[in-house]
Design goal:
The protein is about 50% helix and about 10% strand. It is of the alpha/beta class. A 5-stranded parallel sheet has the order 1-4-7-10-13.
């Protein structure tokens, strides 16, 4: 019994000693904090310290959800929508959107002014004015998205219904957020468009810059790994598959300021199909209308209209336990 009591006492003392040692670890945190502060001193990012307005990433994401509820009535709203209450529900959602979007645009404009040391330009008035212009653009966006849904149904035999496309296709999700962001970009709203498309990128693996120009009936099948650069121009009824990159040629280290306002990404004309894992680079590269670009191709030169670009059949070798044979000639 005495031995048991001593064992328990030793265990208790050990626990106390451990807790005291762990408590000393906390005293090392202030040193790390001071190093972090020193690391930020002199960096441009440290200018954010202080009373500088800034849009909220979380609020912008909520705006995306609100917009999807407006652009796809009945799909992303908790309330049941029918013909009798459609105008009321959409009116309420759109009014709330206008108010929230106006606040975020004002913050983005103010943040841009502070960071760039611009003179005051009535950011609050401009913000709500731009929010109204965006709201007035919603019917055009909705009409474009209707063509994108139809393109998915026509281009993918696995698409069973518009509902399936709207609810579950990552391509349509990325395209719909791009179309929202592109409208804001064209209104010269800073920061918010890029937050939107990068949110779509994080969800879908599809990276579309908000400044790209994309026509109607755009379809991305599967989608993972698709990249569409800032100055890309895409015509109507274009179809892309997973892993397609519409990018820029290799640029020097100081490319940011030197090439910011130049066309660096390709032009894809109407009714082009580009298959999986193909890379097309360069601002002067034009893929002519109705062309088909096969998979796993690297292109840095233009292609005339009505052209097929395909790789030669690869040389395959089949190795079994007893036999080895090359694939037969095509």
């Amino acid at each position: 019994m005495t031995k048991t009591i001593k064992t328990l006492a030793n265990a208790a003392n050990t626990c106390i000693d451990e807790e005291e040692e762990i408590s000393r670890f906390y005293h090392r945190i202030p040193e790390v904090v001071r190093e972090l502060v020193r690391a930020w001193e002199g960096k441009e990012a440290s200018e954010q310290l202080g009373p500088i307005p800034m849009p909220s990433q979380d609020s912008v994401v909520q705006l995306i959800h609100k917009l999807r509820a407006i652009l796809f009535p009945g799909y992303f709203t908790p309330a049941i929508i029918n013909r009798s209450n459609l105008e009321y529900v959409i009116g309420q959602e759109t009014t709330e959107l206008y108010s929230s979007l106006g606040r975020q645009i004002v913050l983005a404009l103010q943040h841009d002014c502070f960071r760039s040391h611009k003179p005051c330009s009535q950011c609050r008035y401009r913000g709500y004015q731009l929010a109204l212009k965006f709201v007035r653009d919603l019917p055009r966006i909705a009409a474009l998205l209707a063509t994108d849904i139809r393109a998915a149904l026509e281009g993918d035999p696995a698409a069973k219904s518009p509902d399936e496309v709207i609810f579950s296709y990552p391509g349509l999700l990325a395209i719909s957020i791009f179309r929202m962001a592109n409208s804001l970009h064209r209104l010269q709203v800073p920061t918010l468009p890029r937050i939107m498309t990068e949110y779509a990128h994080s969800l879908t693996g599809i990276d579309i810059h908000p400044a790209a120009s994309i026509g109607e009936s755009f379809f991305i099948d599967h989608g993972t790994g698709v990249v569409v650069g800032e100055t890309t121009v895409i015509g109507n009824r274009v179809r892309l598959y997973q892993g397609v990159t519409l990018g820029a040629l290799s640029l020097p280290h100081d490319a940011g300021p030197r090439y910011r306002n130049t066309k660096r990404h390709p032009t894809i004309e109407d009714e082009v199909i580009i298959y999986a894992n193909t890379t097309i680079l360069g601002g002067e590269t034009v893929i002519g209308a109705r062309s088909v670009i096969g998979g796993n191709i690297w292109l840095t030169e233009s292609v005339p209209p009505d052209t097929k670009v395909l790789l030669k059949r690869p040389e395959l070798t089949f190795v079994g336990r007893k036999t080895k044979r090359d694939n037969p000639p095509a």
